[in-house]
Amino acid sequence: MRLRDKIAVITGAGNGIGEASSLLFAKEGAKVLAVDRDEKSVQDTVRQIRDVGGTAEVCLADISKDGDCRSMIAHAERAFGGLHILFNNAGIMHSEDSDAIHTSEDIFDLTLRINVKSILLGCKYGIPAMKKSGGGSIINTASFVARLGAATPQIAYTASKGAVLAMTRELAVVHAQEGIRVNALSPGPLRTDLLMDFLNTEEKRRRRLVHVPMGRFGEASEMAYGALYLASDESSYTTGTDFLVDGGITAAYVTPE
Ligand code: NAD
């Protein structure tokens, strides 16, 4: 087992990447605190883990709130005795997020509060807990749009993921000597609710797929395997990276010299 006896906090565990990663991490021996603000879906994730003999608990939290993030980390320490893996994964893509002319200040602020401030808050409480546990691995979910921008405009989301990458690099450098590794996982376009709800017409979906060399959307389970590598000791010399799992979309945008 690749995560035997590790204690993991995974946000956005009710759906998509967070759900797939919770199931995989538990299968690989981790004790998982499954965090989400949607009670029904996160309970379902924990039920699936327990049904096959894994260890997991539900934690209801809004990761844009300081008090919720503090309680989430305290919950992991209380329930499992420490923290080794913090997967800051939950995020939103708002249907009213658009170009600079049409995106309201409210949507911009909301998106940054959930997608960016949550990284600060997760780390604010997670890093001290991880230090007490002898070190660990933090994974922040960014996106290919941080490098390329989006084909259907979403200026707030793109800004938020750029910030996630920048924060990841700084966190990695600052905490490298403490045995804490910090990496970004940058998915390509996925067939999860988040993107399918945003690309809500066939035309928008086709426009996105034109640029993906593999010609298909990725699956949440394919991101979970990437996250598993970053979470495990197999990536012990990897920190500060932007780990792209993107079906080749980023490579396709690079112009040959
Ligand atoms: P998803 O919508 O399938 O799942 C996200 C989960 O996060 C949901 O269960 C939701 O309830 C939860 N969540 C949202 N806001 C929350 C909050 N404030 N507090 C607690 N929980 C909250 O999304 P997904 O596709 O699995 O995306 C996960 C991450 O991957 C996000 O950060 C997203 O930006 C990123 N990402 C997704 C894609 C894609 O194409 N789907 C591509 C690149 C990056």
Rg, alpha carbons: 17 Å
- The order of strands across the largest sheet is 3-2-1-4-5-6-7
Tally of individual helices: 10
The counted number of beta strands is 7
Heteromolecules bound: nicotinamide-adenine-dinucleotide
The CATH H-level homologous superfamily: NAD(P)-binding Rossmann-like Domain
Helix content: 40-55%
The name CATH uses for the topology is Rossmann fold
* Shape descriptor: globular
Q: What's the helix-strand series?
A: EHEHEHEHEHHEHHHEH
Unreliable residue runs:
none
Mean pLDDT: 96
Assigned CATH architecture: 3-Layer(aba) Sandwich
Briefly note the structural class of the backbone. Answer: alpha/beta
Overall structural domain count: 1
Question: Please, could you describe this protein's structure?
Answer:
- By secondary structure, the protein is of the alpha/beta class.
- It has a single domain, classed as Rossmann fold (3-Layer(aba) Sandwich), CATH 3.40.50.720.
- Helices cover 48% and strands 15% of the residues.
- A 7-stranded parallel sheet has the order 3-2-1-4-5-6-7, with helices on both faces.
- Helix 4 (105-132) links the parallel strand 4 (85-88) and strand 5 (136-141).
- It binds nicotinamide-adenine-dinucleotide.
- Nicotinamide-adenine-dinucleotide is lined by residues 11-12, 14-18, 36-38, 41, 61-64, 89-92, 114, 141, 143, 187, 189-190, 192-195, 220.
- Residues 11-12, 14-18, 36-38, 41, 61-64, 89-92, 114, 141, 143, 187, 189-190, 192-195, 220 line the site of nicotinamide-adenine-dinucleotide.
